[in-house]
Amino acid sequence: MAQMLSRLVRDGLIVRSPHPEIGRAQRIALTPVAIALLPQTQQAFAEGSRRCFSGFSADERHAAVGYLKRMHDNLCDGRAGR
């Protein structure tokens, strides 16, 4: 993660600043360059989603998204692997 953030800083897409309340934490913000790229990013994401779910029924898409959300929640809660 640190390497990815460093590359994003290097490429001028994000800026880091110290968190005012948590000494070791940093705040991450998009730069104007990154904000200008958002429409392209959103279009690429929409195209990728369309391709991923090609041939899926609405019910299948809904189920798949639900499973992905549950996996995400497991990982974010630190429960994965228990």
Structure description:
With 82 residues, the chain is α+β, with helices and mostly antiparallel strands. 60% of the residues lie in helices and 12% in strands. It has helices spanning 2-10, 32-52, 58-76, and strands spanning 14-18, 26-30. The protein has a two-stranded antiparallel sheet with strand order 1-2. The protein starts with a helix and ends in a 6-residue tail after the last helix. 0% of the residues are buried.
Class derived from helix and strand content:
alpha+beta
Find the count of extended strands (DSSP E, 2+ residues). 2
Helix content: 55-70%
Mean pLDDT: 92
Give the N-to-C terminal Cα separation: 23 Å
